[in-house]
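Regression test case RT-17, inverse folding.

Input:
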């Protein structure tokens, strides 16, 4: 439809210009053949998008034929302007620009012969400038289209990268939550089994810890799954509301059917609870002080994963967590006396390193001196 409109406008303008063109004494008055050439030039524009170079060659040949027939000069130029523009704006235009260059040279040579002037004479400027303007307009439109395409591609890449980063973040959360919960359940279930007959109260307390850990894990897992499915992010550290578009997760309930309260946000003040539940020892170097929320949340997740690894894989008797409050940030050391690493780094170690480097810090993990395994890191703050 758009192409038909271009042809109609170009044909109308061409017919009008031929009709009103002044006829010099040496010119041939326009007749049916002249109007036929002009309309043929306009009709050739129907192929300008698919074959811009061939279209320009056809229109140019008809234009030169019109002038060789001694009809009034310049009258049917409108289709030629459109063809020039189409060549310049085309994605693949090498052959089209070559055709345009040949046409401009032939047109310039023909008018030099007719006017009997040199190539730099001012009488040749008007036609050449208009043809050049059509080419420049096409170039400008093409450049803008390229910029818009590149910008759209960049936005798509950025959006895809955000999706990938969000999925990695959710994968880390799922891994950390499940690993920690299994570690707590394993330790406390073992305690309950050992003291069930001798100290039922202690066994009951251990099972209460298991139940609480399960409830918290359920809420956090549902939050992570909801974010993965519906695009809902978890709340920022310090926001105790469950994640969701409106700050809710819907009707979250524990296995007993009771509503599950949202667990506190990961923070350093939760480490005593974590270490107590897993049997680890928490130590401090320096004067404890509040840290940025992102640092506290990251530190908590790193300690959570490192302790869970030690409980599940190291067969350790002692797990030591040491926090060092330094002027430039927070140092973390998690060391156990277990059997050390038994293979290549897994998702947990990769996740810890990604968390640390994401804040501009660092993390290293490997065998400790004297046996066992050690995780060391630093977070700015």
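Golden output:
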């Amino acid at each position: 439809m758009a192409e038909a409109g271009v042809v109609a406008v170009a044909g109308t303008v061409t017919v009008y210009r031929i009709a009103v063109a002044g006829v010099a004494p040496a010119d041939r008055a326009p007749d049916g053949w002249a109007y036929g050439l002009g309309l043929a030039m306009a009709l050739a524009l129907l192929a300008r998008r698919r074959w811009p170079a061939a279209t320009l060659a056809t229109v140019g040949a008809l234009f030169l034929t019109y002038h060789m027939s001694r009809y009034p000069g310049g009258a049917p130029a409108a289709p030629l302007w459109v063809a020039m523009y189409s060549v310049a704006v085309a994605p693949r235009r090498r052959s089209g620009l070559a055709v345009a260059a040949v046409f401009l040279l032939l047109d310039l040579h023909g008018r030099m012969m007719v006017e009997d002037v040199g190539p730099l004479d001012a009488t040749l400027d008007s036609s050449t400038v208009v043809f050049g303007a059509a080419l420049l307009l096409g170039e400008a439109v093409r450049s803008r289209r390229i910029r818009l395409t590149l910008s759209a591609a960049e936005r798509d890449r950025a959006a895809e990268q955000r999706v990938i980063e969000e999925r990695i973040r959710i994968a880390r959360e799922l891994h950390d939550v499940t690993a920690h919960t299994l570690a707590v359940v394993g330790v406390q279930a073992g305690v309950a089994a050992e003291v069930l007959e001798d100290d039922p109260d202690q066994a009951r307390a251990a099972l209460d810890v298991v139940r609480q850990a399960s409830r918290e894990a359920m809420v956090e897992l549902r939050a992570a799954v909801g974010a993965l499915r519906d695009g809902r992010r978890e709340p920022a550290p310090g926001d105790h509301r469950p994640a969701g578009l409106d700050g809710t997760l819907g009707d979250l309930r524990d296995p007993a059917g009771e509503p599950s309260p949202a667990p506190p946000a990961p923070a350093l003040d939760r480490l005593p609870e974590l270490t107590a539940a897993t049997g680890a020892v928490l130590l401090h170097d320096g004067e404890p002080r509040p840290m940025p929320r992102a640092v506290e949340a990251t530190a908590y997740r790193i300690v959570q994963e490192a302790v869970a690894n030690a409980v599940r894989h190291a067969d350790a008797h002692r797990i030591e967590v040491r926090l060092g409050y330094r002027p430039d940030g927070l140092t973390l050391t998690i060391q156990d006396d277990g059997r050390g690493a038994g293979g290549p780094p897994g998702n947990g170690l990769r996740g810890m390193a990604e968390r640390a480097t994401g804040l501009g810090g660092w993390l290293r993990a490997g065998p400790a001196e004297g046996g066992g395994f050690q995780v060391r890191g630093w977070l700015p703050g």
